[in-house]
Write a structure and sequence with these properties.
Elements lengths: L3 H6 L9 E3 L4 E3 L8 E2 L6 E3 L2 H6 L14 E4 L3 H13 L4 E4 L14 E4 L6 E4 L3 E5 L4 H9 L3 E2 L11 H7 L15 E8 L4 E4 L5 H7 L7 E9 L1 E2 L3 E10 L3 H14 L4 E7 L7 E10 L7 H4 L11 E6 H5 L1 H13 L9 E6 L3 H8 L14 E8 L17 E8 L9 H20 L3 E2 L9 H8 L3 H11 L14
Parallel strand pairs: 5-7, 6-7
Antiparallel strand pairs: 1-2, 1-3, 4-5, 8-9, 9-13, 10-14, 11-12, 11-13, 15-17, 15-18, 16-17, 16-20, 19-21, 19-22, 20-21
């Protein structure tokens, strides 16, 4: 949790803003000019020093840069309300920054950045729900719930992400039967584009509640969320089976066996190049259990194309499983300056009718350059269609039982700018996306893809008029989250 003392201690020699000059369209650190409009009194601070702005002017992709003119570190939700109202009056674009883990400028702006990490209180942990500020990390929520023997129902593979950030996008898990993180939200506090604070839920201001979950921050800023909790198991057992990429049909057949039986808590495919040259598939299955009740490996893996004895078995505590990729990424940070690698990620959701065919055609064309080395990986995450309940999270049309998130999480070989590499991979992403869309696919919008207005209208399909209506109602000045370019 970020305390006010710790928060104020980060200010140092930062330049404090006192007003905005609508004539010059610039923030002011003094009131020497008559045209300067004073900012409202804040519990936190508004900053213009170059290091702060530069840090918030790039995201995990390291491809797009947009230098904000100011950064708000709110000391209260009132600060968020006041500054959004001020920015609407003066036509200043606003974006909210969680952990900055989008990869193509989705959370960037040349206006005002609101850092949600300044609001990071865990308000309550009840018998079946947890209420947290939007800046709380999922790993923090997991540990707070675990102290009561509880857990959020599902997690993304990396849990060093803010609650507000993932709820704005969707939050795709490794589990297959539970939907996304946004499907387990009971209530939200949201500041809309007019500076008003709303408490919304399925039964209260449903229009706003729906568009905030997977709605890419177009209608408001999430400041607090109440999320489902369920009883937690103490341990996890992970099963790992490897296949050559020439054997796509076999790994998919085994994946379908596990999905159809519904005996595991999750199953997915990982792609990587362990020798730095040859890409392989790794089928991952996980089952949660309590101490003293170890699962029967032979029964759970029966009927696969390889004997159960050929699977690598990894036992861990439940929380260690939740944080398994955090440890991997922390290692990459130490060894390879992972944060500063270019990450032109590709992410698309495929209908079950065409997913296997698409992956079977695409993966053999990819090389170790697409999957690293040393840090590039890919995933296929199945999710049961009937569990996806939020209308502004766009999934492919169709009647398939499952939809599949297909990720190619490419990293550059070395840190630092590499325009040629970025251009090559952005061209690849466009080519792969066009192929996916022709087969009914939709975009999972954390990746690196140049999207036009026509692309966004196609993405939202029959929901586009409804999105326009809600945007006009909740963000009438169209100042919120310009990065994706949805309404450009």
């Amino acid at each position: 949790m970020v305390t006010r003392r710790r928060f104020l201690g980060t200010l140092g020699a930062s330049a404090l803003i006192v007003g905005f000059d609508p004539t010059t369209r610039a923030w002011a650190t003094s009131t020497g000019s008559r045209s300067v409009q004073r900012i409202p009194h804040l519990d936190g601070v508004l900053l213009t020093d170059l290091p702060t702005r530069q840090a918030d002017g790039r995201d995990l992709g390291r491809i797009v840069r947009r230098l904000p003119r100011a950064v708000l570190r709110p000391g209260s939700v009132r600060d968020v309300q006041k500054m959004i109202a001020f920015c609407r009056e003066h036509r200043i674009p606003v974006a909210t920054r969680g952990q900055g883990h989008s990869t193509h400028g989705q959370g960037l702006t040349d206006g005002l950045i609101i850092e949600n990490r300044s609001l990071a209180a865990i308000h309550s942990v009840g018998a079946d729900s947890i209420s947290v500020d939007s800046g709380v990390l999922w790993r923090e929520a997991a540990h707070a719930a675990a102290a009561r023997g509880l857990t959020p129902p599902l997690f993304t593979t990396y849990v060093g992400l803010s609650v507000g950030g993932t709820l704005s996008v969707g939050g795709f898990p490794a589990q297959n039967e539970l939907g996304l993180q946004i499907d387990h939200v009971r209530e939200l506090d949201v500041v809309t584009g007019d500076g008003r604070l709303h408490r919304c839920s399925p039964d209260r201001e449903r229009d706003l509640f729906e568009v905030m979950l997977g709605g890419l921050g177009q209608c408001g800023v999430i400041t607090r969320a109440t999320i489902d909790l369920v009883p937690a198991r103490g341990r996890a057992r992970n099963y790992l089976l490897q296949y050559p990429t020439t054997d796509t049909a076999r790994v998919w057949a085994d994946l379908h066996v596990l999905l159809e039986r519904r005996e595991l808590d999750g199953a997915y495919i990982l792609m990587f190049a362990p020798d730095g040259k040859t890409v392989v598939y790794q089928l991952n299955g996980v089952v949660f259990y309590d101490d003293g009740r170890a699962p029967d490996d032979g029964r759970l893996l029966r009927g696969l194309s390889a004997p159960a004895s050929s699977a690598a078995v990894v036992d861990s505590t439940y929380l260690e499983w939740v944080e398994r990729y955090d440890r991997v990424i922390d290692g990459w940070r130490r060894q390879y300056a992972w944060d500063d690698l270019l990450k032109p990620w590709f992410d698309v959701i495929l209908p079950g009718e065409t997913a296997q065919g698409y992956v079977s055609e695409v993966v053999p064309t990819l090389t170790a350059r697409d999957f690293g080395p040393p840090t590039g990986i890919g995933f296929v995450f199945p999710q049961r269609r009937s569990k996806l309940t939020r209308p502004f999270f766009r999934i492919p049309p169709g009647n398939s039982e499952f939809v599949y998130l297909f990720d190619v999480l490419t990293s550059s070989p070395a840190p630092g700018p590499d325009p040629a590499f970025a251009a090559e991979m952005l061209d690849r992403n466009r080519r792969l996306y066009d192929k996916a869309r022709a087969l009914g696919g939709t975009r999972y919008p954390i990746g690196s893809l140049d999207f036009t207005g026509d692309d966004w209208r196609a993405q939202y399909g029959e929901r586009w008029p409804d999105l326009l209506r809600r945007k006009a109602r909740y963000d009438p000045g169209r100042i919120l989250t310009p990065g994706p370019g949805i309404f450009s």
